Amino acid sequence: MDERNFHCWAYRFYLLEQLTPTDPVELEKFYETELEFLRSTIGHNQSNYSAWHYRSKYLEKLFQANPSLRSTSLTKEWQLVQTAIYTDCTDQAAWFYLRWLLFNQLGVETISQDEHIQSLEQLDQLEPGNKWCMLTLCELWKAKNEKNQERIQYLEQLANHIDQDRAQFYRDQI
Predict the structure, then answer these.
(1) What is the CA radius of gyration of the chain?
(2) What whole-number distance in Å separates Cα of residue 18 and Cα of residue 121?
(3) Phi/psi of residue 148, each to 5°?
(4) Is-contact 28 65, C-beta < 8 A?
(5) Which end of the chain is more exposed for a tag (fewer CB within 10 A), N or C?
(6) Closest CA to 72 of 109, 41, 31, 38
(7) Neighbours of 111 (CB within 10 A)
(8) Per-residue CA distances from 60 to 21, 67, 74, 132, 152 (Å)
(9) Tens-digit pLDDT profile for the chain (174 aa)?
(10) Are 139 and 130 in contact (CB under 8 A)?
(11) CA 31/CA 36 separation, integer angstroms
C-alpha cells in the first residue's frame, strides 16, 4: 500500500468517525491513540503530505469534540512541526502543515515573536535561501506588520533568484 494514498486516508477518517466512542474517557484515549499513530507515520516518512493533511483534519475534529485540549495540543504540534522543518527544511509537506498551524489554528494574534517567529528567523540564518522559510517569514511579518523592508527584500530574492518560476506570485505580495 502507498502510505501517501489520499483515498486510504479519507477512508480511514470515515471509519474513525463511525467508530468514535461517546464516553469521554474512551474518547480521549481514542484520540490520543490516533495522534500517536500519526506521529509515528510522520516520523517514518516526514515527506508524507497525506499524513500531515490528515493530521490537520483530525486535529480540527479533536478540537471540535474537546476544545479544552486545544492549547496543549497546539504546543505539541508546534514542537512536532518545528522538529520536522529543522530536520529537513526543504520538505514542503511540513511547511504546509506549519503554515496551517500558524494561520488557521494559532491565529495571528497569538503568534509570538519569542516562540514562533524567532525560531524561524534562526532557521533562516542556518539555511539561507530556503524558499519555504523565507515565504513563511514574509507572511508572518506581513500579518504582524513587522520588518516590512526585510519582507520586501526576501520577496524580491524569491522572485529574482530563488524561485523564478513563481516570480509573479512573489511580486504580487510586495
Answers:
(1) 18
(2) 43
(3) -60, -40
(4) no
(5) N
(6) 31
(7) 16
(8) 17, 10, 11, 24, 33
(9) 566 677 888 899 899 889 988 888 888 889 889 999 999 999 999 999 999 999 999 999 889 888 988 999 999 999 999 999 999 999 999 999 999 999 999 988 899 998 899 999 999 999 999 999 999 999 999 999 999 999 999 999 999 999 999 999 999 999
(10) no
(11) 9
CA atoms of 22 and 5, how far apart (whole Å)? 29
Alpha helices (H) along the chain = 6-19, 24-44, 49-65, 70-87, 92-100, 118-126, 131-144, 148-157, 167-173
Q: Can you give the pLDDT at residue 149?
A: 97
Residue type, 163: D
Output the nine-digit C-alpha cell for 37: 499513530
Task: Classify residue 23 by burial, with Cβ atoms within 10 Å: 0-12, 13-18, 19+.
Answer: exposed
CB 108 within 8 A of CB 135: no
Which amino acid makes up residue 65?
A: A
CA atoms of 159 and 114, how far apart (whole Å): 28
- Pairwise CA distance, residues 8 & 141, whole Å: 37
Residues near 77 by beta carbon (within 8 Å), at least 6 away in sequence: 59, 101, 105
